[in-house]
Amino acid sequence: MPFQVVLVTVVFLAMPGPLLIGFGLGWMTMLTIAVACGSTAYALLSWWHSSFGLREDHLVVHTGLVRRVSREIPLSRLQAVDVVRPLLMQVLGLAELRVELAGGDSSEIRLRYLGRGTAERLRASLLAHAAGLSGKTPEAPEWPFYRLPFGLLLGALAFRLPVLGAFMLFLMLIAGGIAVGELGVLGGAVPLLLGLMRGFLGPLMRYTDFYASLSPDGLRLRYGAFAARMQTVPPGRVQAVRLVEPLLWRSLGVVRVEANVAGYVGERQMDSSVLLPVVPRHLAFALVDELFPGTSAAGVPLHPAARGHTSGDALGVDGKLFVARRGLFCRIIEIVPHARAQSIRMTAGPLARRRGVATVDADTPPGPIRARAVGRDLAEARRVVDGIARYGHEARSSSAGPERWATRSEAAGRQG
């Protein structure tokens, strides 16, 4: 609401405001105050006339003042539930509930200015409904998985080649400008400073107080200094995972874990793709095994690419996972379960065919991960594609989707 009021006021000052400046500063100030008060009143009335509720296994939301909009969403389409608390909301004890649904970029539902307790109880109720349980089911317990020490976060973010290089160049420009007395040199320091703020201070503030836990209703993530966030990813929503290991992080033995999460699209997908910002390597593989039950990502043997490619390129396939490793300076390991791969492609251009090599891609739902194995022998690539297609068909035919996962497990237990 404050952001909407500020946005309307700024637009007024930027567009009709200059035309009205001729009436004098007093009139201009009064009109600006009137616009700000009017937009505040409209936002308050719109919020006051908004309502929501649960009807069986549907979430019903009514919004709008002049243009009334009603939405009724089956919770079987629920993909993720986040509780977000910007700094002002933390001070006021409020929270915003963000519900991600299957269905594209316009499927997100935001319930703003809820009490913190109300938001967390509604989150638990939505997750229970999505699992096929009663909305009055108590919140599922959780087990600690990983708490990120602030010192490790600080050191890992600083211990990267782009950050170190930008910082050294910034110091050199400052020192050079002072030494020669030429302030124009300092102008080049401003873009570097902005880059450092985005690449270092931004992630530092975002992932401060990071805590991850495991629960029957999914992976729970809590993080943020100025915008506290509680993110819950229900079981089966993670489609692919990658481990990012910059060159300097190898001495620390840590990686970053990212994922393609079903339901998040566009900018929200990129904003929510990091599952663990900095974590020891063995814990990263442990999380992958939790996200994809019955797998052992660390145990998949990797085979190097054909000659002519970097020594880091490799591919591994077992009965459950497609694992591709690439990169020399920044090592990336991409992991896709066969059941989550939407398609498997083998591509080979004219030059690649002359060299007898091909590229194998495992396509997944939209996200930052594009699992690809380059430099594979043509015969090997064909065997891999045929094998993954067979494994994927078997995995999908023997397992159901992620909807109502709790009741399915209960039914299976009764049958056993």
UniProtKB/TrEMBL annotation:
Pfam families according to UniProt: bPH_2 (PF03703)
Keywords of the record: Membrane, Transmembrane, Transmembrane helix
Listed InterPro entries: UCP026631 (IPR014529), YdbS-like_PH (IPR005182)
Transmembrane segments: 169-196
Domain of life per record: Bacteria
Domain YdbS-like PH: start-end pairs: 47-125, 215-289, 318-385
Chain residue ranges for the region called Disordered: 391-416
PANTHER family: UPF0699 TRANSMEMBRANE PROTEIN YDBS, UPF0699 TRANSMEMBRANE PROTEIN YDBT
The name this protein goes by in its record: PH domain-containing protein
